[in-house]
Amino acid sequence: MGYAQLVIGPAGSGKSTYCSSLFRHCEAVGRSIHVVNLDPAAEQFDYPVAVDIRELICLDDVMEELGLGPNGALMYCMEYPFALSNSESTSMDFSATASCAIFRIGPNGWKWLYAITMLELEDNMDDWLTDELDNYLDDDYLVFDCPGQIELFSHVPVLRNFVEHLKSKNFNVCVVYLLDSQFITDVTKFISGCMASLSAMIQLELPHVNILSKMDLVTNKRDIEDFLNPQGQVLLSELNQRMAPQFLKLNKALIDLVDQYSMVSFVPLDLRKESSIRYILSQIDNCIQYGEDADVKVKDFDPEDIDD
Ligand SMILES: Nc1nc2c(ncn2[C@@H]2O[C@H](COP(=O)(O)OP(=O)(O)OP(=O)(O)O)[C@@H](O)[C@H]2O)c(=O)[nH]1
Ligand SMILES: [Mg+2]
């Protein structure tokens, strides 16, 4: 059995920083983890990269292969799904659908490049991942540092397929969703962060831990309590105050949805405190049952059992 954290969240929410802090913490306590970079655009790391998706493909390569600058790439990208939809192959049909879905987000060339990169990952995932994972042993613990494009876990199936692959390799996987604590300065931002998390829960169907990151930036700690474990009614009244009256019904529906999934619960992460990282790691370990096998092994050798 292997163990894995899939670290996701909006761009800049602190995923890579969390991965490096987690690595340092584990190193200090003598525990082995391996951090995998899944961000094709990443440039530098504060952690040793165990596996790097950039060996498969990186954004520079995509731009170079296309022979285009950002504007030209955008034009190419706008034509890309239509070129794909003329194809008869099933996987290409999927690609066209995914690309069209991404296209609707807006004419952003970088997002397109991500889309192509991720589709490339999907096409090659089985071979690449199988080769890479073969290097890891049964009890290894992997942490996947993902890109910040939220469409990857909201409606494009690439991460879901990735997770299925990990599961087929006997990995227990937990989603670790990071939301920047600065989102709480505005209840509408906070709700949109919750919705993105909910999308990931529904898309990925995995044990899920929500983290409110960058707690060192929160000056008024009392404010935060309302957001770590907020009551639906409190959020609703704040939303209603913030939004125009025509949104009352929508606000109610959104809060009901959040309540129904009982997912509005965040664990605060303050990287200045070792205890904060330790607590979060213990919560995640619990979700993926890490350490339970070890307990069983110890119990197997319980001297009292031998006496019996
Ligand atoms: N004050 C503070 N800043 C942080 C913390 N974590 C991350 N940052 C800063 O937030 C910015 C983004 O951090 P990253 O770790 O690169 O965020 P990311 O989610 O990996 O970003 P993408 O991969 O681009 O989506 C950087 O400037 C970090 O230094 C934190 O706990 N406290
Ligand atoms: Mg990052």
Automatic annotation (TrEMBL):
GO terms for molecular function: GTP binding; GTPase activity. Keywords: GTP-binding, Hydrolase, Nucleotide-binding. InterPro entries: Gpn, Gpn3, P-loop_NTPase. SUPFAM superfamilies: P-loop containing nucleoside triphosphate hydrolases. It comes from the Eukaryota. Coiled coil: none annotated. Binds to RNA polymerase II (RNAPII). Small GTPase required for proper nuclear import of RNA polymerase II and III (RNAPII and RNAPIII). May act at an RNAP assembly step prior to nuclear import. Belongs to the GPN-loop GTPase family. This is GPN-loop GTPase 3.
